[in-house]
Design brief:
By secondary structure, the chain is an alpha/beta fold. It has one domain: Alpha-Beta Complex (Spore Coat Polysaccharide Biosynthesis Protein SpsA, Chain A), CATH 3.90.550. Helix content is 28%, strand content 25%. It is globular.
């Protein structure tokens, strides 16, 4: 079994103001993605697939990949704006990628046999998150049994603006029953709230959210391809310049249709990330604290 880490790194970072996937946050020039890959290797992952925009390959190779190749097998996959269902072309003026489901489908010719985690490039998930999914892969699961790491909403909010989170519901056996993207969530005096029909309503900070951290078998790709192809015409007709195919929503559709089961696995890891530029100093401080405590070495990739 070649456990594989798939990282979604093709976003444009419009709110952040730059290519935050490789923005430096560590004292030795690391990005968040360095720590993600390091944690996955420590747990036992053997291959990395980076989903990027083709025009960013040289940047990723120079800032990241050349230093990690001695430690893990690396392959690129390219999210292409023109990779669309038959009969469709890119609408005039469209520059934004087609979303996280579309990004993952860029790997459909690469991920053929082995289980994989998919996660964001600009989120810090913590090593325990990788371990609980790795262990799940080794529990003799079936081809249509997937999983996700469940993070508490309250630990995933920004002090500097609203965020979108994939809110989850689960049964008493921790099987996912529904998941959907909730937009415009922000901190409030009593915890958290989100915008609904022009007003803000409370949401429990203990609510589990996915943070795009899923454990899949390769069977998921044909299911996602089917859902994406079915949904695309209506989505692009309604909003040709901004429509996105979002992975959490499509995981929810697969659960609704009985196409798979998804186990929500709690993790002791703390999540943090850089949604906005103003989040960066907090992340820098958290990373340095982990180095000072000896959890990470000063040089992650020292041979």
């Amino acid at each position: 079994m070649k456990e594989t880490l798939v990282i979604l790194a093709a976003g444009m970072g419009s709110r952040y103001g730059g290519l935050k996937q490789i923005d430096t946050i560590g004292s030795n020039g690391e990005s968040i993605i360095d720590f993600t890959i390091y944690d996955a290797i420590k747990v036992g992952f053997k291959k990395l697939v980076l989903i990027i925009r083709k025009e960013h390959e040289e940047l990723f190779e120079e800032h990241l990949v050349k230093k990690i190749r001695p430690f893990i097998e690396v392959e690129y996959a390219y999210q292409d704006l023109h990779d669309l269902p038959n009969g469709y072309t890119v609408p005039e003026g469209r520059e934004k990628p087609w979303g996280t489901t579309h990004a993952l489908l860029a790997c459909r010719e690469i991920l053929k046999e082995d289980p994989f985690i998919v996660c964001n490039a600009d989120d810090f998930y913590g090593r325990d998150s990788f371990k609980v999914i790795y262990d799940y892969f080794h529990d003799g699961i079936g081809d249509d049994n997937y999983c996700m790491a469940g993070f508490k909403l309250g630990k995933t909010l920004s002090d500097h603006g609203t965020v979108t989170r994939a809110v989850c519901e689960k049964d008493e056996d921790n099987n996912l029953t529904s998941i959907h993207e909730v937009m415009s969530i922000r901190k409030s005096k009593n915890g958290a709230e989100y915008e609904q029909y022009g007003i803000y309503v409370p949401i429990d900070t203990e609510t589990p959210v996915s943070m795009n951290f899923f454990g899949f078998m390769p069977s998921v790709l044909s299911k996602l391809q089917s859902i994406f192809t079915e949904e695309f015409p209506e989505g692009v007709a309604k909003n040709p310049l901004k429509y996105e195919a979002l992975l959490p929503n499509h995981v929810g559709k697969m659960v609704d249709k009985g196409m798979c089961s998804v186990k929500v696995i709690p993790t002791t890891s703390d999540w943090f990330g850089v949604t906005y530029k103003e989040d960066k100093p907090i992340v820098v401080g958290r990373i340095q604290q982990l180095k000072d405590e000896g959890f990470y070495p000063e040089d992650l990739w020292k041979k």
